[in-house]
Amino acid sequence: MDQAYLQHRARLRQRVFLPATEQERDAYFLDLFAFQYTYNPLYRQFCDLLGKTPDKVQQRQAIPFLPVSFFKTHTVQSGSWEPVLRFSSSGTAGMQTSSHLLYEETLYTDSFLHAFTRFYGDPAGFAFFFLLPSYMEREGSSLIYMCEQLRLRSRFEQSGFYLHTGEALLNAIDTCKKQGILVLLLGVSFALLDLAESGQFNFSDCIVMETGGMKGRRTEPTRAELHEIYCRQFNVRHIHSEYGMTELLSQAYSKGEGLFEAPPWMDIQIFDTDDPFSATASGKTGAIHVIDGANIDTCAFIATQDLGKKHADGRFEVLGRFDHSDVRGCSLLIAE
Fold first, then answer.
1. pLDDT > 90: percent of the chain
2. Quick one: which of 51, 239, 273, 321 is 20 to 30 A from 197 by CA?
3. Structural domain of residue 160, as residue ranges?
């Protein structure tokens, strides 16, 4: 393999999760852009068509964002290597799915562990209960991979996956609560709604986190409506959320009110839906564009098909979809 490629990648890999000032983040993202322009032929062709080459791009806001749909139709890869792992998005019959190739498995593990620890603490201190039936029923889910790694790091034997919202799940949560163990219940929206509609439960000492998506199973309420139901039926003050997708190796988290915070190696930008090259003002609704600094080996600069807005404090909201493309598994719920 090309030595210049290996050396450049090694420099990026060493820096991705380091504490960084805004100036250091800018330098990292611009270096990552230069790397992917050089070694990702698809992304280079895309940038060339826009006239956006590394010598002309001097700030992160000017870096071109590849439409996320390219992960469905093309091989998105920086460098020439055989993937050690391949993640795929969910989809109904006949729907084209995204594919995300991994050069290094531990890069993904490092990313989600750094992020989870940053926002919630050591995963060893949690009993995890994963209610992810639609993901458990297929192969290649990056969410299932992440959850399994969190489960393995938990020191509590009750941690595990549940296909149904039955007594086994409720009894295990109740056992942990009685023992003073911190519980995190993470589920897809429709499964949590099934549980909420089956009765009222006292999860007041637990973290309830939704990953979004009804997956076409039911009429889809707004996020606010869902969270109101969950809070009432589970006796919790806030519902937490995770924002991630197959095409990213990093996640942002919300601890309530639908306000997400991204880790330092991610950058969220909001662009005008009518002009994909113009950023919007703070607080204005637009298309979510993501820089994922952990996406070293594919493309770090992604124009999602999610609609949102970013606040002055850096937190952001996800308000739905701005087009009629097929619904991605981890995209969040439709706005009011």
1. 78
2. 321
3. 107-260
Buried b (16+ CB within 10 A) or exposed e, 211-230: bbbbbeeeebbebeebbebb
| pLDDT tens string 99-120 | 999 999 999 999 999 999 999 9
Can you spell out the DSSP letters for 241-260? EEE--TT-S--EEESSTT-E
DSSP state of 196: H
* 232 occurs within a structural domain: yes
Entry pTM: 0.91
Closest CA to 304 of 239, 248, 234, 221: 248
Residue 202 lies in a domain: yes
Assigned domain for 245 exists: yes
Q: By three-state DSSP, how is residue 43 classified?
A: helix
- For residue 124, being part of any structural domain is answered with yes
- Return d(Cα 112, Cα 242) in angstroms, integer: 11
Domain containing 191 — which CATH number? 3.40.50
Residue 138's pLDDT is what?
Answer: 77
Q: What is the pLDDT of residue 324?
A: 45
For the record, the structure tokens of 87 come out as: 């993640």
* C-alpha span between 237 and 332 (Å, rounded): 20
